[in-house]
Amino acid sequence: MTLLQTVLIAFWVMLPAYVPNNAAVLAGGGRPIDGGRTWGGKRILGDGKTWRGTTVGTAVGATLAIVLNLVGGDLGGSLGVSLPTFPPAVILALPFGAMLGDILASFLKRRTGRGRGAAFPGVDQFDFVIVSLALAFIAAPGWFIETFTLGVLVVIFVITPILHVTTNIVAYYLGLKNEPW
Ligand code: CTP
Ligand code: MG
User: How many angstroms separate the alpha carbon of residue 92 from the centre of ligand 1?
Assistant: First the structure.
């Protein structure tokens, strides 16, 4: 497999995990998941993690995975690469894992005294990838091992922080996000 093909597969397979956080930024608002509750004087999660953002983010990511399944055969054929098809459980695991990773990161941010919107370098860039990969593995171990070869995983860990940083800077300048991270 060429490097370009590996990059294409890595990007394709992670799209349902990349999109939810951006959809949540657009859809966010309303009741926070922690209902305003605190733990040790600090918010459990904070106002940045809402039911609406989480639900819409997961739904958008899952819908995208279904669309990718529908168009992947033809597109892969014309690009000369075999694009993976998402098994049913993975359609949900990737986007929900991305949202859950981001929620766990907020939990850690609050515990370490970081207020809403504070940067947490390293965690911000990888939280959603690690948990979405973990849930995808649990959802379909055979498919995971077949799809996420070492090459694909290495590419994911290189392109994810780059994509994360650039999309957040773009969202900041478009006025969609309060901080450029
Ligand atoms: N959002 C949401 N629900 C989520 C994740 C995000 O509603 N599960 C929305 C919120 O409006 C949030 C915005 O997307 O403010 C940006 O997301 P993020 O940067 O993850 O949240 P922050 O506000 O920066 O809060 P935190 O410090 O907890 O990350
Ligand atoms: Mg933030």
Answer: 20
